[in-house]
Fold each of these.
Amino acid sequence: MARKLPPGFEHPVVANAFDHLEAGRLSKREFIRLAALLGASAASAYALVGLPAPALAEGALPFPPDDPKAKAGGVLKVAMQVQKLEDPATFSWVQMSNQARHTLEYVAITGPDNVTRPMLAESWSASPDLKTWTFNIRKGVMWHTGEELTADDIAWNIKRWADPATASSNVGLSVVAGLLEDTGKKDDKGKPIMGLSNGAIEVVDKYTLRLHMNRPVLSAPEDLYNYPTAIVHRSFKAPLSDNMIGTGPFTLGEFRVGDKCVLKRVTKTRDGKDFNYWGGKVYLDEIAYYNFDSDNQLSAFASGDVHTLYDFTVEQLDLAKSLPGIIHAARTAQNICCRMQVDHAPFTDKRVRQAIVMSVDNEKVKNLVYGEDGDVGENHHVAPVHPDYGPLPPLKRDVEGAKKLLKDAGFEKGLEVTIDVGNTDGPWHQTACEAMRDQMKEAGINLKVNVMPAAKYWEIWDKTPFGCTAWTHRPLGTMVMSLGYRTGVPWNESHYANPAFDKALDEAEATLDVAARKVKLAVAEKILQDDAVMVMPIFRPVYTIVAKNVNGYQGHPTEYHQFNKIWLT
Amino acid sequence: MLKLIGSRLLQMLLIMGVISFILFAIFDSDKFKKQIAVNELGGFAVSALSEQDYQAWLEKKGLNVPFYQRYLNWVAGVAQGDFGKSFEKNEPVADLLATRLVHTGLLALWVFALMIPLSLLFGVVAGMKEGSPQDRLTSFISVLTTSLPEIATAIILTVIFALGLRWLPPNAAMVNGWDWRALVLPVLTLVLYDFGYVARMTRASMAEVMNSQYIRTAILKGLPYRRVILRHALRNALIAPFTIIVLQMNWLLSGVVVVEVFFQYAGFGKLLLDAALFGDIYVIQAATLVAVFVAVASQIISDVGYTFLNPRIRFA
């Protein structure tokens, strides 16, 4: 039964979640995350459950507090791939977004504690049915042009994402998908053209934006920190690198693809006035990204060329431990998804897919590659680290069962399949696939591991019949399932289409009761697991290393760089 | 001689024309255009674009015109020093290429400056007395360094001198400005690989000369051994190594890819690999022209040098 909660926790979902918290069915951290999503202040939520809140900057800004010892100045040097900056709405690499993140900001920001707080919005609220979301835009946020950010700017960006001509993956996010309806028209590929519903985006006044969705959406603020949702100025024209106007404290200085991307502090607006950054003090003079391929980033750190790096792989962990620096490891939902296209022979036969899945021992593969670190995947893409994860019985390898299924499917003499691997997150992809290959052999499956350059893999990731794709961390299980497995969504690389799954996912997303939502999501997980669409053996931790003279660094599970309060000694 | 140089240059222009035409034709396919689109816009964006929007993108990039027209435009541009604009890096290819060639040129300069005297010295000393301890030692070192792939040499040197002893930087990206120390490991990797090959060729040539009649006669005549080697043997023994050394310029241009990528050195090889992976046609074209130029130029130098070293050789 809901009890009286302090102001800010009025939303019925929050009250319901609090009941579950008291009954021990919900963890404190999950409650804080949920309360913050639904408009409560994160600090109050921490206080309510009796956990120490991470300190925030003065004025409840969504950044760590200012360190009294902090010294201004210096250049933070980072090893990362320096990539093209075209259109933020079509960014397909986190690295691209990191290059732009301190210039283009987001409506919300998810911190290293997995709690989402207001950023360009100063607060938000959701209707009891989670279909209407009201965002109060922060006052006094200045564009580099000197203009003030308004609700119209945010509305313009959301409309742009929804426009099919933009070709943004943001249409797969619940917050955008909930605003769309079928226009009744079809494109030249026969796909239905989706358009914004009438009145879906309402600009209430200069600082208030309301989104009217056609289904309940719990993840709206979290979606608005997904990396391609950076807010651009209304004068934006690709490529971004030609004219980077944002609201952040840095702008593009030097930029050469494959070489370096130097961000410099903004002190004056384009029309020569003083630029006042809304987010308080920023200490660094410059952030300089230097291009290093993933294999070479640690050597750049070892040589003292850079202060930190994007990430390093598990194979480099021992070397990293020998270096003078602080290693940050974050538990994440990043994974490899060895998915089969269900409309491509021999994977059209569910028994073949099930045989492949059954022949692999996910735990052994995970332990071989990551040892004690990371989580074992359960072949449905929702990770234990997701707050809406519904536990299922542990998977068991069944070689005899796999053999029988293959025989029934007409492959009694064995099955030959090839998996394409791009090692896009490092050579551990190949290691995992080779371990799978060795296990599959026992079941009569001859798996060929076709290794190709990462850039080549990204050309075919959604086309290859059997491919090993790296998926980055996303804060919710429903979010990743909506992006990757709902019928007809753009990132549905397995071409999976199951109305029963879609229905289960809809029901999970529409369930406001947190504990019931986990149960509902477990139904969707089970359907996906039984349909054997993928082998997902590993949820990997991400590792990075930071020099000891860098203060205020916090590792982020999605590898999003948040350097506003970093300072150097 | 002038006729020879003229015919070689004509040959070079012909090869450049044919190769660039073939490359243009290959890169004109829908597959390659889509590859550029995927690399620029992301896989999802391309699959989500309508045909009309995709055509608009092709037009914006100038990829919608027939390839022969693009080719002619490109040839006209090249004649004026304009090699087009890189799709990946969004800057003029000529600027990009010039910077990278200077970097690779510096690398090559150091490689040749060390490799030539070392390999000639070891090769000549080994060839002077076949089967002697110095001959066996040189052969062993040569075979060892040549049989190790560049990548393995690069890893071994990095582990020992950069990560172990910490004497040298493990990469040559030089993010803090030009640093000669950063060149040591890439240069050493290339020198070690190339040294063995040239030393063995020099040794073989020297050994052959030392077994020839006129050298035996000179020795039997009682000429001082030093004089026999310096005045009579060396000049003839160096003809074959000279050709090989000049042709190493050509090898170096492709050989640097592995070394430059491993050490993150911003040179011609790394540029070529990046362009190939991206499908950056104008960079690939320009790099190909450079490669053809170097190949033909090294051949001309080799031919001309031959005539000076061996007056019996004359080209019709």
Amino acid sequence: MQDAILKINHLTVAVQEFNKETLLVNDLNLEIPRNRITALVGSSGSGKTTTGLAILRLLPQALYMKKGAIVWEGQDLMNLSENQMRLMRGKKIGMVFQEPLNAFNPVFTIGFQIGEVLKQHTTLSGPKINDEIVRLLTTVGVDDPPRILNSYPYQLSGGLRQRAMIAQAIAASPSLIIADEPTSNLDVTLQAHIMELFRKLRDELKMTILLISHDLGMVVHLAEQVAILANGRMVESGETKSIWQHPRHPFTQQLKQKMVI
Amino acid sequence: MTRNTEHVSEFQLALRSFKKNRLAVCCAMILFIFYAGAIFADFLSPYSYRNEDRNYSYCPPTPVRFFDEGKWVGPYIYGQTLTFNEFYRRVYQTDTTRRFPVRLFVQGDEYKLLGLIPSRLHLVGVQEGARLYLIGADSRGRDLWSRILYGAQISLSIGLIGVLISFSIGLIVGGVAGFYGGWIDNVLMRLCEMVMMVPGFYLLLALRAAVPDDFNSVQIYFAIVVILSFIGWAGLARIIRGMCLSLREREYVLAAKSLGLSDFKIILRHILPHTVSYSIAAVMLSIPGYILGESALSLIGLGIQDPYASWGNLLSDNMSIVRIKFAPWILWPGVFIFLTVISFNIIGDTLRDCLDPMMKAERK
């Protein structure tokens, strides 16, 4: 087992409803190996996204972390101050959201919003920022970066928006990217392209990727590690190949046959 | 890929539908003329605001004539002679033997245009020996038209500066309260309520009473602006806070957080810009409040002090019914206040309709 960039120990996230406490994530243990693609797979409501947000300490107000630790290079993120945590977000851990149309602010151009991240986390300024944005957009496979960076989110197609979103997430060159269902709103061809892009990010930029998905069939070609979540509990985890070939848990078998979404 | 249609921004759409409303465009033009008049008051006015001649107290308007016995002779006025009637009341008699041509671009009282360029040039004026009163004179024989132009500088600017200050406070307080929620929200909103709890005009008077007496006119001006803005921010802050409570749940706010942007930047860039369509309309609708607030203070003698002119203190002459009876032209500043206030209100209402995305069906 090679070294893990992030270790999730006994993560338990709960929500209080009147006097009843509901556990959304129940005692989750996960190790994310460096420079690998790890997939977190489960049906909707299984706590995948909640886990992703808990890593960044961005849980919605009603939710709280009941116990557990999220250890980043030997340090528990829960012990960081809010300011230290802000330096982690975007700079060390980036996040790609499911629907880039919602995740981009509609009133600013793509270039402005990527530039914002660069201004926050790097020392670049002025025209250098522009050059950097063009470079980032080229990295994620955008054909005509100067035009895209002057476009508003709603002017772009879904695939381009998702690429721009990824460009924004990798702007400050974080080591870990959490991709929350990055392809579920795209058609099959585009899904393949985006998956290819994640592979490229891992191979060329040496990034670690935590891929959150509900589609086991899709991640099987990309991820080395897979963890299956059901109702907030991890039911199975390990090498993707062995899980795909010999799913032990009945839920995994259902996922494989796409019987649950 | 991008659509190859002409890109029309939301703002341009709103502007288009605004232009279709003739009444609102008319009001915008009125305001434009008023503000232009205020900026170039020194040049447009025949006299300085403090140029007085007590021999012309409450002198009636001197009509500008163009014809003499049916012949075009260019603009001129007759001289006025002061006499007293049997009740010892001032009566001005038009002296048709003395004729004074009204000239354009004449040399007159010294001033600095826009506070920079020293000049003596005035748009209109008459030579020594007569005084040009386009709409009449006040108690000290100062030209009311000139004083209205100078008064516009104060009355119209107070609205803009006041709104700028109170909206900055309102947006930031509302944004912070809405974004953070919890105890910060609680503290800030209770503070707002404390400000809103006291009826506006009494708070205005109380705060004005707290200002030292020995302030000079510039200090009083700024004191009034600050006092007016202090009253105005709370209502806006509450509404902005409500909008922020829903805006902070948007995914792009979460995305901005996940990118490590600071809270201040998130409030400023990702939350407040989305309240702009409401804010623009609210700004327009609240400017009249500042103008009226200043007028009310000046009217009762707590605002701008003589010899400086504001529309409010020009109106304070109207507190006596006798003066209105014998010199009805001193009501003119009220007409200007009325026109300004109603213009801002109509523009604000129209903008609110134009900027409302739900009204798009009506934008044909």
